[in-house]
Amino acid sequence: MQHFIETVWVDSERVYAKTKDGLVASYLFADWERLRNATQEQREDFYLSYYGIHWPQIDEDLSFEGMFTASGLCSRTESEDSVCYVEHK
Known about the structure:
The chain is of the alpha+beta class. It has a single domain (3-84), classed as 2-Layer Sandwich (NE0471 N-terminal domain-like), CATH 3.30.2020. It contains 3 helices and 7 strands; from the N terminus they run βββααβββαβ. The strands form 2 sheets. Strands 3-2-1-7 form a 4-stranded mixed beta sheet, with helices on one face. The longest helix is centred in the C-terminal third of the chain and has 7 residues, at 64-70. The two termini are 23 Å apart. 26% of the residues are buried. The model has no long low-confidence stretch (mean pLDDT 92).
């Protein structure tokens, strides 16, 4: 089953992603050196691609599938697109 990302947001400790079918996964910034050491402004400056989240100011990327797999909400796939973002027009 494929899940589509609806929204992504950050707070002072985590980055979150929610799918259109209501699944929510997150990563602690503390688990990623660049994100742990980033300012809140840098953490809030991200954009979404089909596969994940990119923070240009700190050159960090996290995949949606990795986030949802680590949370036990999906299984890793060879194509890494069980969870993806498709831009809303």
